Fold Pyridoxal phosphate-dependent decarboxylase family protein.
Amino acid sequence: MNRSNSPETGFIDPSGANAEAIRHLAEDVLDQLLGQLGAAEDRSPLPDESAVPAGTIPESPRSQTDLLGDLETIVAGSMNPAHPGYIGHMDTMPTTVSVLGDLVASAINNNMLSVEMSPVLSELEVQLTETIASEFGLGPDAGGVLASGGSLANLHALSVARNHAFDVQGGGLTGLAREPVLFTSEVAHTSLQKAAMVLGLGTDAVVAVETDADSRMKPSALNHAVEQAERDGHVPFCVVATAGTTTTGNIDPLPAVSEIADEHDLWLHVDAAYGGALVFSGAERGRLDGIEAADSVTFNPQKWCYVAKTCAMALFADTDVLQEKFRIGAPYMRGDDAIPNLGELGVQGTRRAEVLKLWLTFQHLGRDGLGQLIDESYRLTAAVRDHVADHDTLELASEPEMNLVCFRAAPDWCPPDERDALNGRLQRYLLSEQEIFVSLPTYRDARWLRVVLLNPFTDEATLDRLFDGVDVFLDADGP
Amino acid sequence: MNRSNSPETGFIDPSGANAEAIRHLAEDVLDQLLGQLGAAEDRSPLPDESAVPAGTIPESPRSQTDLLGDLETIVAGSMNPAHPGYIGHMDTMPTTVSVLGDLVASAINNNMLSVEMSPVLSELEVQLTETIASEFGLGPDAGGVLASGGSLANLHALSVARNHAFDVQGGGLTGLAREPVLFTSEVAHTSLQKAAMVLGLGTDAVVAVETDADSRMKPSALNHAVEQAERDGHVPFCVVATAGTTTTGNIDPLPAVSEIADEHDLWLHVDAAYGGALVFSGAERGRLDGIEAADSVTFNPQKWCYVAKTCAMALFADTDVLQEKFRIGAPYMRGDDAIPNLGELGVQGTRRAEVLKLWLTFQHLGRDGLGQLIDESYRLTAAVRDHVADHDTLELASEPEMNLVCFRAAPDWCPPDERDALNGRLQRYLLSEQEIFVSLPTYRDARWLRVVLLNPFTDEATLDRLFDGVDVFLDADGP
């Protein structure tokens, strides 16, 4: 072929003709990357004033040296979740094999759209989602489809729930006499609002159910809300329970919620995007009791299972319902008796083989390794909780159930209406002076410092640095 | 930390403590992978009877040796689009830098959900989508959001179109008196049906417009369909034109379609998932004339720009409409004046930094390199077309406009009702005997051999092998 204007390394020659040049480029990128990752603690958890290369398209190829320089700059300026002081969001450093699995997945560029385009990986995804559904106790007919992020998994599950209840695949919602409504706690993830909007239900269709002091849905409030909606002439069809709320990591009372769902004949979706990982901890999996009654579950290994993002899934207790209430066939795809074309069953069509990094992570860490990571983060969470309790000037947002703790500085000398600003300053101080990144969410109309103890290299010394910083800041900022 | 059960290489230590072990593992994976990719032409384009490892979760970590062995097996059994004989689907071998870009993106694990979680990469995505929107001539207020696949980009665009027309973000579709309908050609992509279903419009809301002999929407039929829908009491709100149909790669007449959209005040969405790449060819970009009138465009660099999947985008001529008609805020995310939180503007929330591999591909190939790849594939397409014309026993499905050609064997000695089976046997013969994979779509109620000339290493010799195989097969299978 004639590619005189293209770089020699543009593509990997399938005959090996440019093997040496490809190897040099790949090794240069790998060397530089591993160098930066192996020194991640020398950069800020969240760099400030990062340089951004121009988002333009050059006429001619740029040199590999230039590209390597830009890549180095991009990594240097990016969010740095590998830093042990990065404890602010549900964003992890990834497992090594999930990074390498993504390298392989991109290189072979298979397509989860159909079995023909991913013969091994489609089957692996079917098997592995069945395995995970079984971990949640969803029964013998359960299975699922991976999704590039939890928002899509929630959208997928609610789409099936809606179609199951109203049979609107063909005719749509316009003809319905009464409005479908679904129920979820007032602190549930905003992706549910987005899903309701996209699904044509509208955000008003999401009824926010009151929570208790620890951000857990009140069963009595749920029951009341469902009955009120019926009285208002709406049609309740679904309740979404959360296992791991975004801000404080709390778990709705799954057995009580599922009982109410059952009484009112509602689809039960459990958004276990974050908390689903607990199923891999012998010590903590009991916290998910009740999830086995779900009709569908969202679970994101991209969070507490440390798989590089994205890696999420929607699981269904009855995959026949998924087939009957969602599937749209494509005329250009060959079918297969045993393994479905997954692109016909999910919200996405063409999709990366994200199953590879998930599978590799399970194989490389084992259930034991995952369990240990989870148990260790509980230990650190208890330590954070104790630090907060030891400080008269700090208050806790809710009792931790997972590895999230929200607290704030609330010293007597600071008037209540100035405490949001105080905590904003404290957050910036911790980042700039202590190399600790905590996030600053709004929760119950106030700003909180949010700690997510995911990083495997965070230890007591990190926590000491955090609370030493709090002490010094409050002494300096105080009266 | 105490991770006695975990492998030493589970995570990359940010202090460099396990740098040597990590380097060994990464180099072993890279060596094996490059070895397999550099010999891709020695494997079948589509292996048969592939081995699939067990989709289970072991109790204890498995050895790295075992994992490398399994990885080798997975790659060996997967779809092999790097083989020059893989000319059957819109699945490419990826650019080298897009594979390496995915490695880096996974390693730093940034999150396009918010600026705080991807400070450099969010800004790069905003810049680059603006650059591409400008290539399409969408105007000074245009921009967009990347999506993990074209189905999501179409869903995103139609969601905004629907909300723009009916203002249903809060209240949903149930209250509408009349049914919204949208128009697209009878051969448009099934993701539009899926989008209509997910959006609560229902698949019936997608009106299939008749096409001409070359699979292009007939403007007169569109006009008629819109007027008919109005007479039927429906509310037309959108027309989707296709630039690059899935089966035959044809382009709807964009200027005529946009004129009709204008007359009837319809949102014009152009699904240029495949054909959008033409904008990078000086010789061929005129085929997209008219796209500048679009309200939204889907474009997938994961196809003809050779970026590892997934990499797609929804572009909007007026990003204010996107802000006003789609955005749902999240209380746990910090805003930024200049750069939006992209997770609030797209269908996905948490999302990989797929912009990195896209940006790297542009930098590494340049506009010249991309243009050359496109022009070269036109040259080969003409050669395939000539081969078909030279064979009395072969017929063409439609006149090629891009790098797709559908043809079939239709020898006199084979009765018309046996020709589907004949072409099925021919497809399998080409794969098993000639190492040529063509796909076998159903198009106009018949099976066709579909050639997609994407692979940069496919050349005349490959085409000779294809048509030699056709000759030998028809001689042997014939009367």
